[in-house]
Design goal:
This protein has one domain. It is globular, with a radius of gyration of 19 Å. The chain has a 7-stranded mixed β-sheet, with helices on both faces. Helix content is 42%, strand content 15%. With 236 residues, the chain is α/β, with parallel strands linked by helices. It has 8 helices and 7 strands.
Amino acid sequence: MNPSYLFWGLVALLTSAGVWRFSRNPAAHLRRLVFALIHVLYRLRFQGRRHVPLRGPALVVCNHVSFMDALVMGGGSPRPLRFLMDRPIYESPWLNWLFRLVGAIPVESDRRDPGNVRRALGEVSRALRNGDVVMLFPEGRLTSTGEINTFRRGLDLILAKDPVPVVPAAMSGLWGSWTSHCHGKALAHVPRRCRARVALYFGEPMQPGEATRQVLEARVRALKAEADRWVESGRP
């Protein structure tokens, strides 16, 4: 047999096998690709991943620094996450297929779409009762100062309906990137850094009776301070 035919036949076979495996469980393979991608983009430190429950429903809450947060969270979590996210981003023509694939839950303000928040919270409730882990950014928007904004009341509404364990988490190192609002509107300028140090710290799960907005916000701030120390230790 011509060696070139053998080579291209092997390439076609491996490609077909890869496509078949991906089609059987696309979300799992996508998580592996995201995990590899963020390790290429950043020098990462994960801490406390064991605090995410191995099974059963849970909420993960984290500060919101940049448009890369969801990728870092999705890659760093030991379990798949269902993200609660802004509907305009969810409906992006380029990324909507991805958000649908990972089961993201879009939400819009009632001022723009009356009843949307109620429907989104209903989807969150169904996900938790199905045993999923739901991830949300309780600040509701990207920080414009690098500091953590006050947590919104949606977190209390979710826990009042579905009292599940809550895992606080904190991100550090993405403030100053082109996907943050550090140098003006996010994504509106060219990247200025390469292979930045980025830390994602998970805290111990909190039971729903003690996981109020104020307590969780304080815990996320404390985790962020720990993560900041590692990020800043590598700066000149």
